[in-house]
Design the sequence.
């Protein structure tokens, strides 16, 4: 393991050897902390929270669990160990040594990629900041804060790259990462899904299931980057990211399990009168967050994606799975709407379809999660199932934006969309209902909200009713 120093900023990048960089980051640190106090979790900042902290990058021993007040969390800079003699694995520079510094011609593009990724990290913390006041249990409250502090660390990961490799431009970008605000009209976060409110726990679980999973695929694609520091940073972020998707998939899974129990007890589909979440509502939230997350992959046909790939900046998830790393030949068949909005099969040059290739891996991964939820329904003896809507449904980016499709992917008119959208997406009444179930936080360790099943096990070997968050000095 590289040296983990016990400096102001924990790191394994020999920060103390670069005094200028160290000073610049130490100047950014109080601004980050101020942002955390202003825009991080509302309430609970003086509580002791049982949190995982990254202390190194050893696969078996990288994290440490203990009680800590969130503002005292040790946000650090950790890069995965370098791969000896690493070569660029795709694109026009295939087989050349990975870059340890930024090639001048890719400087602006790389900065944009890093800033776009970096912007999502504080954005999600802002989106989730009120959730502590309506948590279904103290176990879930702790998981929320775990996700939040780690998104904070992911911001550090990107800010390190900006400060270390982009000079003054990078430092300015790092300031701006703290000044944009999720949902703000004048200074919004960069990507759409990161400006949507997450003010109930069903949204939170869907977000961590679907939107954090977009993050996983973006990080996998950046982990392939020819720019080695970016690859190493994102490889380590993926280690932490796994827990976020666990929170989402298991969270929705426990909601589905509770709903199935209530449906069996009541012998009816509508469990709202029993204080549960009905499957229709769960499906609507799924439709919303899945479609918002699909947008994050960008357009199906994209010259940007083609040039990121050609330049060796952003690859495909697990590039080694593929035979042909040049992707100069080959095409990708996709349904493309023509001028009248009707779909026509087209062969798109493979490099221009890289966003869609990444989206394919993502969709498959999401489907595995939905299959597990459906297994819970089938084991409960129910015939109802959840499903992913068509990837054309409710899109705002790419070739389907501005057109209307039902969840099966059939073209419909704007009038039909208006008439029927509340059947498919959460209506104001649905949102009000979901919130009504979560009017107050449940923080007695042995208790669980009625609309969600308890987890099968606790965190870090602790019991499920452990006091993960404590109000004490
Ligand atoms: Fe993240
Ligand atoms: Fe995450």
Sequence:
């Amino acid at each position: 393991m590289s040296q983990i120093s016990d400096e102001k900023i924990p790191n394994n990048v020999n920060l103390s050897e670069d005094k200028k960089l160290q000073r610049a980051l130490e100047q950014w640190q109080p601004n980050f902390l101020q942002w955390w106090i202003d825009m991080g979790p509302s309430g609970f900042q003086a509580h002791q929270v049982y949190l995982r902290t990254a202390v190194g990058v050893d696969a078996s021993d990288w994290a440490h669990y203990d009680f800590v007040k969130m503002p005292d969390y040790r946000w650090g800079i950790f890069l995965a160990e370098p791969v000896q003699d690493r070569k660029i694995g795709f694109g026009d520079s295939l087989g050349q040594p990975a870059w340890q510094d930024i090639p001048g011609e890719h400087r602006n593009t790389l900065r944009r990629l890093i800033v776009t990724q970096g912007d999502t990290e504080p954005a999600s913390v802002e989106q989730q900041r009120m959730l502590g006041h309506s948590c279904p249990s103290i176990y879930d409250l702790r998981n929320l804060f775990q996700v939040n502090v780690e998104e904070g660390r992911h911001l550090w990961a990107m800010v390190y790259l900006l400060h270390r490799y982009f000079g003054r431009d990078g430092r300015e970008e790092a300031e701006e990462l703290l000044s944009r605000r999720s949902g703000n009209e004048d200074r919004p976060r960069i990507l759409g899904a990161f400006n949507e409110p997450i003010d109930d726990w069903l949204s939170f679980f869907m977000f961590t299931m679907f939107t954090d999973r977009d993050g996983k695929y973006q990080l996998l694609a950046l982990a392939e980057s020819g720019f080695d520091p970016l690859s190493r940073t994102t490889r380590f972020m993926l280690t932490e990211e796994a827990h976020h998707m666990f929170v989402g998939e298991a969270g929705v899974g426990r909601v589905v399990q509770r709903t199935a129990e209530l449906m069996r007890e009541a012998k009816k589909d509508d469990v709202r009168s029993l204080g549960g979440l009905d499957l229709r509502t769960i499906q609507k939230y799924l439709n919303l967050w899945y479609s918002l997350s699909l947008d994050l992959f960008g357009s199906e046909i994209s010259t940007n994606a083609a040039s990121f790939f050609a330049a060796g900046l952003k690859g495909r998830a697990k590039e080694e799975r593929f035979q042909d790393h040049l992707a100069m030949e080959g095409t990708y068949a996709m349904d493309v709407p023509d001028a009248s909005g009707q779909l026509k099969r087209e062969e798109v040059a493979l490099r221009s379809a890289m966003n869609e290739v990444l989206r394919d891996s993502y969709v498959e991964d999401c489907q595995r999660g939905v299959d597990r939820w459906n297994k819970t329904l089938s084991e409960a003896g129910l015939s109802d199932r959840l499903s992913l809507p068509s990837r054309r449904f409710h899109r705002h980016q790419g070739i389907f934006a501005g057109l209307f499709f039902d969840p099966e992917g059939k073209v419909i008119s704007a009038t039909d969309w208006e008439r029927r959208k509340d059947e498919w997406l959460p209506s104001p009444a649905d949102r009000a209902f979901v919130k009504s179930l979560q009017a107050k936080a449940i923080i007695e360790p042995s208790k669980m909200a009625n609309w969600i099943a308890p987890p099968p096990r606790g965190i870090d070997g602790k019991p499920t009713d452990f006091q993960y968050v404590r109000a004490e000095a």
